[in-house]
Amino acid sequence: MTHALDIAADIIAPDRSADLPALVFAPAHEQARALAEGRVSAVELLAYTLARIDRLNPVINAVIVRDDTSAYAAARAADAALARGERKPLLGVPITFKENFDVAGLVTSVGDPAWADNRAQVDAPAVTALREAGAVVIGKTNVPLALADLQSFNAIYGTTNNPWNLAHTPGGSSGGSAAAVAAGFSALDLGTDIGGSIRIPAHFTGTFGHKPSYGLVYNGGLGVPPGKQSLRDLSVAGPLARSAQDLELALTLLLNRDPQANKTWRAELPAPRQHRLRDFRVLLLTQWPGQDRSESEQWVHDRLVAVVQAAGITPLTIEDLPDGLWPDLPATHRLYRSLLTATRPAPRPDTPHAKAEAQALREGSDDSDEIAGRRGPHLTHGEWLEKNEARMQLRQRWSRIFEHIDLVLTPNLVTTAFRHDPNPPKQTRTIPVSYADGVRQLGFFELFNWAGLPVLPGLPATAFPLGLDALGLPVGAQAIGPFLEDLTPIRFAHLLQQAGLSQFVVPPGFAG
């Protein structure tokens, strides 16, 4: 047996061992309740979790950095606090963080060998927030190189597999996060999202994930180089979990962590718009303008129609909105692509890549998604300001749309989890996507329509599972809500879960 398995055998009381296989897959808030009620100790829960990681993580490689010594110290402290009668939302609950979050004493590399020795000195504010809530930090979960892929592999930590099918990816860039939560290695994980990096891994692994409204959760202390103060435009930090209720719990803990802004400003989330499923005004959007539905999108459409009808909801379409209110989605997607790539520095002008880019910029059309993306890093400040104004105008338009509806339901991606394809560069990689007339090879940058839809205007979006497709792979959808009304899509997913219409399922081979 491995070291963690030996420790678990010594620590776990015989009368507790029968309960732990189920408890390790319980939502974080239920684990916290079990700890508060004395049904298990924090040390026992941690020992069992680490033993599971030792036994099963080699198969999926989700947890790539651990600090067992610190985790056991935190678990013992949690048990002492529980014995004193203290109660905190996550007291004694074992959790993980995406690798790009600074955790004191652990490396933050974003999968880049150039930063393999970058050991964080202090916790990121988000890490501090969950520690203060009593969480026991196990370690970190895997990412793609520079967080820039829909798969999670890098030269430092290797490849993370999907617990539902080891030949398939769990997604990226929060792929390790989603895989760890799905496999029962962590009750909660924090990821980041700028192009679906929380929602797509949740979709691929059958878990829940929430992309907060832009600016709501402070995401300093992330990534490299260390100590940077400017935050990446469009990017947000948010939770992945096995229940929507845990998304709300984590989000409330993460508020007001900006060390400068919290001197004066305090965010307080508006209450969810509705408290009963049948009262939600839901717009169903499952086909991107000008494109065929893939088989996965069709599956999501059919399942969403069944789900909302079972909930007593009559879904709306864009035709039910006032004329001229709905935005031009292809145009907004080009704007998203432009501002997304503008968050990255332009290549040095003397490199072959830069010369190829310059040629493409001269020859490309303004109505091309690809050219819009390539031009992003080369925008002048004045051009960026014009595009930013267009973004703000779009956010205002969405505010008017949400006067007529509460949520927009869409797919997360045009496909389910696809097979690993480590062949770089991703710019030339294609992904097989099934349609009614056969399989089509889509380019990497053709995959982000649904993911980018809420990112550009900064809207909150909650990913929730819908079930398994014919191949046994998880399929999910996203609920997009009004700006800063994050509790509305989260509550919708929670009510679906309560009604049995959206459920986390343990992947085969990972129970026990």
UniProtKB/TrEMBL annotation:
Transmembrane segments: none annotated. It is an enzyme of class 3 (hydrolase). Residues 343-377 are annotated as: Disordered. Keywords: Hydrolase. One of its GO terms (molecular function) is amidase activity. The keyword Zinc-finger does not apply. Gene3D superfamilies: Amidase signature (AS) domain (3.90.1300.10). Its EC number is 3.5.1.4. It comes from the Bacteria. Residues 44-486 form the Amidase domain. Pfam families: Amidase. The keyword NAD does not apply. InterPro entries: Amidase_dom (IPR023631), AS_sf (IPR036928), FAAH2 (IPR052739). GO terms for cellular component: endomembrane system. This is Amidase. It comes from Pigmentiphaga aceris.
